[in-house]
Amino acid sequence: MDAAQFSGQPLVILNPAANRGNMHRYRAVARQRAEQEQAEYVETRLQGEAKERALQAAREDRPVIIVGGDGSVHEVVNGILTSGRRVPLGIVAAGSGNDFAWNTLKLPHDPAMAVERAFGGQMVEVDAGIANGRYFANSCSIGIDADIAVAAGTMKKYPLMSGSRLYYATSLKQLLFGYGRCPWLRFELDGGAQAGRAEERRYVLMAITNGPTYGAGFRINPSADHCDGLLDVCSIDYRPLLRALKMLPIVKKGEHEGLPEVTFYRVKSLSVESRNPVNVQMDGETTCASSYRIEILPGALLVRV
Description:
This protein is an alpha+beta fold. It is built from eight helices and 13 strands. Strands 1, 2, 3, 4, 5, 6, 7, 8, 9, 10, 11, 12 and 13 form a 13-stranded mixed beta sheet that branches. Helix 3 links the parallel strand 3 (64-68) and strand 4.
């Protein structure tokens, strides 16, 4: 990939609310490198601002570097893909989960090393997904895991609640107190060896991912490849609560293949319908729908790794 074709001034976007607001080190290394590269440096103040700034930069064929968590990455990805252009994306992970950056792309945890990769790393074509017109980089899911994402947004305000501790504690809470809301789903799979329509049944969750993990390290689709042009799908059938509680640590470690409740698929697209509106999460950001269409966008992102 020829970097010379993206000669516009890079845009560095930092979310000052990421990492519980403890962004001093990230800010220092990002601003210093931005000055060296004569890049534009901005800090967001409002939700949606990162998407709009990334959209405008992409339209001008300018590389974009985002310093923030999964929500910030989600906004920037939506901005770039909405533009219809493909420009280099650099990611400096500074959130509580960082699944796409750390577990899918294997980017450095150290801020200085991550900034170096964001500006000068090798450019790789990476798949993205789209669900009901909204883009996602790493994951899209429905069921109790989407309920967990909603609850995690609330629990983040409590001390010591971040990273895997936050998501594991929230998962346990939702299993104990929200398990009765597991949805009845019907889905149809397209463009893979397992294409076909499944009869309606009750599921604990259905997780569609580009990468192997979500929820700060839950290895939901352990063999997922973010460059293979396919979506990895894991569905878990509804079982009594005690069984679900026993399965939680097994799923977290990615050792659930072979369990009778679990089915894996690999497809290009799928349609899902629910009896009632249910929570849907995309890269940790949530919405609500009763039906949705999910498709893979092969090589849609150009990411520096």
